[in-house]
Amino acid sequence: MTHDTGSDEMLEAAARAYARGLPELPAALDDRVMAVVRGRPVPAVPRPRHMPNVWRWLVEPKQVRPAFAVPLAAAAALALFFVARQTAPRAASAPAVAAALPADTIYVRFELAAPAARNVALAGSFNSWGEQSIVLARGVGGTWSVTVALPVGEHRYQFVVDGERWVSDPTAHAQVADGFGVTNSVIVVSPRGVVRS
Amino acid sequence: MPVHEADRVEAADGAVVRRVLGGDVEAYRILVERYRRQFGRYAVSLLGDADLAADAVQEAFIRAFDSLGSCREPDRFGAWFYRILTNQCHTVRTRSGARRDTVPVEDAGLTSRERADAGLEQGELAARLEAALDQLTPEQREAFVLKYVDERSYEEMAALLDVSADALKMRVHRAREALRAIMGAAR
What is the pLDDT at residue B53? Predict the structure, then answer.
């Protein structure tokens, strides 16, 4: 349509004019950054986490012959129950499995009831707000869940529904505005579990 | 170890990250220069103020340095840093308590349809777009700025945002529709 074409042209002209008006940041910024980081310790690479053999056996993908499928599925369900029970946000006791993690890392289970969703992911400060790196699994009744190892500290997050709808966690410890009209959920992880107040 | 000019041109992000982690802190300047140039204007666009943007970019580089050891894909440092910078911009916006002095779209230009069709003054166009961008969702705004202000390809954007190119095309499409509606309604 003539009107759309005209609008598109105007929009692109506006974008070009807007871009031309944006200044480059000065090279002096590089000096300021370097002056600060020279005084800092060289960043350390976190030690790789060592998984006990039993835990590795439980979590590593493996081929299953049909005859063993049912008992193995039951074992896997038990294992998941164990992990979830020991590491759910409200659990404060030190779990046996979590003892294999660094002392400042805790398993946390995230859940979202979204029966109509086609997929749900978790994005937050702990995964650089990646929209696809932590994918939730759909459970009975349309409740989606995932268990994530989080370092002790405060984290902000949202669920990403169907790849485009960002949803805050209605059960979160707190909610904070991000300044763009979006509300992020907050989770606080202590060495003993998730802090709720 | 000094930073040579050849490094600035050739060194891949992953190699530079490994040098820094190995104790060659001066090599970090290569990444700072590279991504200050790439993302500086993006930060100005998000914050609407060059001084605020410079503060945000500086702080983001320092944060990235402190947590460089946890950068899981050093070859994709740019995408990793981009997320840190975006979140830092959000924090700065919240802390500063205000955006730029936003100009209502209807006050930012156009006095007549005829004038729009004939071509607006560049400054007016830019001001109207700037005001309209403030009304987009963060995702739409980010996608539009990367596509039309930074002039990145959808493949580049997909690598940066960890979102499929198809999803980004849809985001940009919706951003354009929204901008057309906002700017059109202000006529």
Answer: 93
Q: Which residue has the higher pLDDT, B97 or B183?
A: B183
- Chain B CB contacts of A15 under 8 Å are 129, 144, 148-149
Residue B47 one-letter amino acid: L
Q: How many CB atoms lie within 10 A of CB B100?
A: 13
ipTM: 0.78
The backbone torsions φ and ψ at residue A145, rounded to the nearest 5 degrees and listed phi first, read: -150, 160
Q: Are B31 and B3 in contact (CB under 8 A)?
A: no
Strands A165-167 and A143-151: unpaired
Crossing angle, helix B77-96 and helix B154-161, to 10 degrees? 70
Nearest-CB residue to B65 (from A14, A43, A164): A43
Quickly tell me which residue has 């590795």 as its tokens: A56
| Predicted confidence (pLDDT) per residue in A99-115, tens digit | 455 668 888 889 888 88
**Three-class SS of B83-135:** HHHHHHHHHHHHHHCCCCCCCCHHHCCCCCHHHHHHCCCHHHHHHHHHHHHCC
Report domain extents, chain A. Answer: 53-99, 103-197
| CATH match of A103-197 with 3.40.50.1100 | no
Name the maximum alpha-carbon separation found in chain A: 68
- Residues of chain A with pLDDT > 90, as a percent, come to 13
Kindly identify which residue of chain B lies nearest to residue A41, measuring between CA atoms: B66
Q: What is the pLDDT of residue A100?
A: 55
